Amino acid sequence: MKKVAIIGAGIAGMTAGVLLQKAGYQTEIFEKNPVPGGQCTGWRREGYFIDNCIHWLTGTREGSGLHELWKEIGALGEGVEVYEKEMFFSSKLNGEVLTFWRDKEKTRKEMLALSPEDEKEINKLIDYVELAETMTVPVEKPFDAMNLIDFMKLGMSMKAMGKVMKEYGKMDIKELALRFKHPLIQRAIIDYMPAGYQAYAFLVSYGTVTGGNGDIPKGGSLAMAMRIAGKYKEKGGVLHTNTTVEKILLNGKKAEGILLKDGIKVEADYVVCACDTDYTFRALLPDIYMPKQLRLQYEEREKYPVSSGFQLAYAVDGNFSQITGTRVFSCKELQVGSHKVQSMSIQSYDYEPDFAPEGKMILQSNFSQTEEDYTYWETLCSDKTAYEQKKKEIAGKAMERVVTEYPFLEGKIHVIDVWTPITYTRYCNAYKGAYMSFVNTKQAKSITVPGTIKGIDNVLLASQWLMGSGGLPTAAAMGKFAAWRIIKEG
Ligand SMILES: Cc1cc2nc3c(=O)[nH]c(=O)nc-3n(C[C@H](O)[C@H](O)[C@H](O)COP(=O)(O)OP(=O)(O)OC[C@H]3O[C@@H](n4cnc5c(N)ncnc54)[C@H](O)[C@@H]3O)c2cc1C
């Protein structure tokens, strides 16, 4: 029986693990953290559960290869309830609120009532969101292994998406926002993602929600990761947690196995490297092996930016139905990392009553952080006291702004945890603290990196970093593709 060593028990690594076990391979996953899941995780504080990943899981709607993959690895399926998101998010400016509802016709009406002079653009946006509902992540086989018929089938299934790309594919978020005259509509679009990012991403993300294909499995992110880990073990896989891999051991054009931090060598016929790709070619393999498509993206920082978050969780004494979903509101200026913000978000987890003790609720804020912010935190964190002090100071100010917006929270809210881009680097070896991969800007070419490595025959890459802009479906697809290549070789 052929043996496969998998580095990292994130969604990519575990997906590869389940599929290889099912195909009769003997696999072991080596994970540096105490729990599997990687970025798809959550943790407890003061009796509350901080869910830190799934805002929406693309592929919750039946009828796609991706949905079947989620079922196959145990993420979705029998016994897994799915919470249907009622809204994407809402934005508030000068006392007016605009909500992007699951029901896009309700959004259309709300937008038209808000700004009749934007009628043409509003109707166009909502019509194209409907077309974007057909978008899916192809997971059948690696793109470089697809033949003409595969591409034709894919083209047919994405026909509607082609129209979206034709109309919105050459503009960025800022340009999309400026198509509207009403300041709240402009703001709402920019609230969603940074101005330089491609506009179609807004339509695709919102279309995932309106199309019922981006809901949230009950129990949240860690529960989903634990289900996949459970499936992996049920199929005979061996998961080693608290086990850091130090190197991939090469002998000429082949890897012989891996070296663990504690000095143990593990032999393997194949190695699947399912962790951050920057870390992979800095720590586990010589840099010369980095695929050229990846290197290009790491080198062109303006074209392929990455982002992270300064995040905090608040415990609230009471249940307040006024705060539901994700809401963005204007606030007194606040410096977070190296830049200043005038708005912030608050997200409620009221759809999961078990995340907070009875009669209480948990809220979170996430301030988007750029690579410049990452440098700020990286520098600051060389002085542990100053780093902790700054986190506390920003958290206090952020909470003040939440109370200003929702005065009924006065005396009933306190911060239970604060984490920064540095947390992601420490926890997952994440490049610049990023928890998604490269974001395509308007100037950038969309790049998919093959999971093979030129010059090494039996090491496969499986990570969200192989395809922008990452996320859980990409991680699962890349894990599947690594398994597919190994199985194909026999
Ligand atoms: C706040 C937040 C919100 C998000 N929201 C969404 C969302 O709504 N929808 C969505 O689709 N995606 C979302 N994501 C992104 C999603 O979590 C990631 O895309 C996905 O989990 C990445 O999976 P991965 O397997 O590629 O990488 P990772 O999760 O990084 O897994 C890599 C694993 O390798 C391990 N590792 C690294 N180095 C070593 C070593 N030397 N030895 C052993 N193990 C090692 C790491 O500890 C980690 O467990 C979100 C992420 C965050 C943090």
Plain-language structure description:
The protein has helices at residues 11-22, 65-72, 104-114, 119-132, 148-157, 159-168, 173-178, 183-192, 200-210, 220-234, 277-284, 292-299, 371-380, 384-405, 421-428, 472-489, and strands at residues 3-7, 26-30, 42-45, 48-51, 57-58, 82-83, 87-93, 96-101, 214-217, 238-240, 245-251, 254-260, 265-267, 270-273, 308-316, 326-336, 339-348, 361-369, 413-419, 452-453, 456-461. It has a seven-stranded mixed beta sheet with strand order 8-7-16-17-18-15-19, with helices on both faces. The protein has a six-stranded mixed beta sheet with strand order 10-2-1-14-21-20, covered by helices on one side. The protein has a three-stranded antiparallel beta sheet with strand order 5-9-6. The protein contains 16 helices and 21 strands. With 490 residues, it is α+β, with helices and mostly antiparallel strands. The chain is globular. The chain folds into three domains: 3-80 and 218-302 and 445-489, FAD/NAD(P)-binding domain (3-Layer(bba) Sandwich), CATH 3.50.50; 85-211, no CATH class; 308-432.
Distance between the termini: 11 Å
Tally of separate helices = 16
Q: Which ligands, by name, code or SMILES, are bound?
A: flavin-adenine dinucleotide
Judging from the principal axes of the Cα atoms, what is the shape? globular
CATH superfamily of the largest domain: FAD/NAD(P)-binding domain
What is the strand content? 15-25%
